[in-house]
Amino acid sequence: MFNMKNKKLRAIFFLIIILVISGIVYYKNKIEWQYNPIKVIQKSFKFKNKHDYEAYKKCYKYPESIQEDSIDNIESVNIINIDKVNDANLYKSFIDSNNIDEEEIEIYKVKYDIKFNDESKSSIGNGEDEIDYILAKDQSSKWKIYSWGR
């Protein structure tokens, strides 16, 4: 009888350990992307595709500049490639005008394919396009999309 009770207690103990470890791994994976600038860009595209406006805004340093209808018109958007920009003048210009340390920004050129539900409501048409994303670290060392454009 005593031996059976020990086996049950051990099984419960190991089950609790497995659940705790699973929870930690899940939570770590859930927030880890915010500490990698490329993953932030990838997630922003993923959230655009899902029309998840609230999650999409979390990718941006200034979420108030994002309009919900800007992603509602997107049928699909897919990244073709992401390349780091190494133009020292571009970095210097951004650093000087925004008072940011060089280690706290990264710039990427993103080539993507986009399809709109109503192309007439967009300033760009369906098809491939390229845009630069400037990412900066916030106070908690998470990367945020600071700016984007051509």
TrEMBL record:
The keyword Transmembrane applies. InterPro entries: DUF4829. Keywords: Membrane, Transmembrane, Transmembrane helix. The chain crosses the membrane at residues 9-27. Residues 39-149 form the DUF4829 domain. This is DUF4829 domain-containing protein. The lineage of its organism: unclassified sequences, metagenomes, ecological metagenomes.
